[in-house]
Design goal:
about 625 residues, alpha/beta, Rossmann fold, seven-stranded antiparallel beta sheet, about 35% helix, globular, binds 5-amino-5-deoxy-1-O-phosphono-D-mannitol
């Protein structure tokens, strides 16, 4: 396993093998299983899309197919499905996998499912087996031959070796010897009509049907068939037949898991007429922000309510320090939160990369609140930071989009962002809703601590409730963005500058551009520019400045002047009707007038759209950029 894994490092890590993100699905029931597996894999494609495979139990055999997926085609699993001879698969029990390989070539051999040497057992896996080398040596000594470069293959040989007539026992025995993370599904010709599953540190749900049951990494894969699900806990094993589900712990003790009802609309998991999920999700932001705020702003802006939060007001009142912890886009939301808490309520607030937090945690005690921000609730770095924070005595509050995800289950309380499923790998509506939730939290903390007076609270909440309408207006003023995207499509590098609250907006805009258009973009604090990056400025190095009106505006204007004086091209997100900026820069991307503190909610929108349109004109795979996956469930 790579010790410090970064999203861009997949190919650099190819020396070792492992499946990190990946989507898994399994079905047992009376219907033909192939279309269920393929449909599910299509919806799980966001978890990994370099290869896919399915296998089906029928007539005492396991029939399978797997293949690498085209990195250029937009319809990866769909294309794989079209190459299959459906007539070959008529069984009603099966498992499927879509892979996101971190190491080991994404080829047919390494794709899942993996099989025992006698062909009687098959397995799909999401996670990493950290001690696979050791296990491989042990198995090889006992005559097992390995066909793939993956860590996963040890699991299927172990299960085969330990099988004594009970698949669940063999799986439990195998997982006892394993170090690492896993969500697995296993089938065997010895036990037709049964799937055995297990989970540790990788997400896995069970879908409950009538005369049929499912396993999946995530609910969109099965929502078409059932809305009733169990979320497996770390260390759970599950045995599924068409009529029965039994969940056990290591040692065989039966446990019960709560049945959750999925409440989102099935259409939400589809593109809804947009060419890409990302565009749909950008346009959903006004509604998504409204959903985050819904029911949380009291009548007449009399305060904020989170319902039964799980952390008491009395505790929050006494809390002395807030540390935001997150990765990527969610980290940028934390950056805005840090300034809001410091600036508006004078609280000791900081923000940390989750990937650093575990190794260099800040000083925390029983009066500290750690706010873990995560769209998926499954990002392993953030999850590990949550565990570390709890160990250090802090309370943990998750700001999360995915119901009952691991981070929410391990935190003391959760503020759900209610953004709906975010499928595009580039995070957009999740970011906006994380910001909205963080502002609510800040206002609520400020009031509890007596740092925000009733008049200010009313003003903040009124303005916040106006944001969905203003976000809608921002989206309507985007014609120019497409033209800019055309004009700058061939640039090789971009500088993104912001200050204060929009320091994070600049970073977020740069992240969006690089992840989906593959243009290098550097986010930078505008005040820091004169300490180095200004040396790069010339007409071939355009700058995207974020300069809405507010405290930092005059400073931003000076920084922009410095660039213009050196023949730099400047595109600028600015307040509408700002004539001075219009005269100064090359292109204005306007946003409505809003307080500087809340401006990140609007200022990010033109940057998301700019990145989107540049990626489209460059012919990039917008929803599934190369080397990335939606949730990063590995360190
Ligand atoms: O699910 P999370 O919010 O925890 O994910 C964190 C990052 O991996 C994520 O925000 C990533 O940076 C986005 N793809 C960026 O658009």
């Amino acid at each position: 396993m790579c010790a410090a894994y970064s999203l861009q490092m997949r190919s650099a890590c190819n020396a070792e093998s492992g499946e990190h993100m990946c989507g898994i699905i399994g079905y047992v029931g009376a219907r033909k299983v192939l279309p269920i597996l393929l449909g599910g894999l299509e919806r799980l494609e966001y978890r990994g899309y370099d290869s896919a495979g399915v296998c089906v139990l029928q007539n005492g055999k396991i029939v399978w197919e797997k293949s690498p997926l085209s990195m250029t085609s937009g319809e990866k699993v769909k294309h794989f499905a079209s190459t299959l001879n459906a007539k070959k698969f008529d069984g009603t029990t099966g498992i499927g996998h879509t892979r996101w390989a971190t190491h080991g070539e994404p080829n047919r051999t390494n794709a899942h499912p993996h099989f025992s040497s006698d062909g009687k057992f098959a397995l799909i896996h999401n996670g990493i087996i950290e001690n696979y080398q050791e296990l491989k040596k042990w198995l090889k000594k006992r005559g097992f031959r390995f066909r793939t470069d993956t860590d996963t293959e040890v699991l299927i040989h172990l299960i085969h070796k330990l099988y004594r007539g009970d698949l669940a026992k063999a799986v439990a025995g195998a997982m006892k010897r394993v170090e690492g993370s896993y969500a697995i599904g296993v089938i065997s010709t010895h036990e037709p009509g049964r799937i055995v599953a297990a989970r540790l540190m990788s997400p896995l749900i069970i879908g409950l049907g009538k005369g049929e049951n499912f396993i999946a990494s995530d609910s969109p894969a099965i929502i078409k068939f059932t809305r009733k699900v169990h979320y497996l806990e770390d260390g759970d094993f599950a045995s599924l037949t068409a009529d029965k589900i039994s969940i056990t712990r290591q040692g065989g003790k039966r446990v019960r898991r709560k049945t959750h009802t999925l409440t989102y609309d099935i259409a939400e998991a589809e593109k809804g007429g947009y060419p890409h999920f990302m565009l749909k999700e950008i346009y959903q932001q006004p509604e998504a922000i409204a959903d985050t705020l819904a029911g949380r702003i009291k009548k007449n802006f009399a305060g904020v309510t989170f319902g039964r939060l799980g952390i008491t007001d009395a505790w929050l009142k006494k809390c002395k320090k807030v540390v935001f912890v997150a990765c990527g886009t969610a980290y940028h939301a934390g950056c805005v939160g840090r300034y809001f808490l410091r600036d508006v309520i004078g609280l000791d607030a900081q923000v940390e990369f989750a990937s650093e937090f575990r190794y260099f945690p800040p000083e925390l005690d029983k009066n500290s609140l750690v706010v873990a921000v995560s769209q998926s609730g499954e990002t392993i770095d953030t999850l590990v930071a949550v565990r570390e924070a709890k160990k250090l005595g802090a309370k943990v509050l998750a700001v999360c989009n995915v119901q009952a995800s691991t981070i929410t289950r391990e935190s003391d309380a959760t503020i759900y962002t209610h953004a709906g499923p975010e499928i595009g790998v580039a995070s957009t509506k999740a970011y906006a809703t994380q910001l909205a939730a963080i502002y609510l939290l800040g206002i609520s903390l400020g009031e509890l601590k007596g740092k925000i007076k009733p008049a200010a609270r009313k003003r903040w909440l009124r303005e916040l409730s106006e944001i969905p309408r203003l976000a809608q207006r921002t989206l309507e003023k985007t014609k120019l963005i497409k033209q800019c995207a055309q004009k700058y499509r061939d640039c090789t590098t971009f500088l993104y500058l912001g200050r204060g609250y929009n320091f994070a907006t600049a970073y977020e805009g740069a992240l969006k551009l690089k992840e989906i258009s593959y243009i290098h973009a550097e986010g930078y604090g505008a005040g820091e520019m004169k300490h180095g990056p200004i040396a790069l400025v010339q007409w071939t190095y355009p700058t995207m400045a974020v300069a809405p009106r507010g405290k930092m505006y005059p400073k931003m204007v000076s920084n922009i002047e410095e660039i213009k004086a050196r023949n730099g091209i400047v595109l600028c997100v600015a307040s509408e009707n700002d004539r001075a900026i219009k005269a100064l820069v090359d292109h204005v991307l306007p946003i409505p007038e809003v307080s500087e503190e809340l401006s990140p909610l609007l200022a990010v929108i033109p940057l998301q759209l700019f990145a989107y349109h540049v990626a489209v004109v460059r012919g990039c795979s917008v929803d599934q950029p190369r080397n990335l996956a939606k949730s990063v469930t590995v360190e």
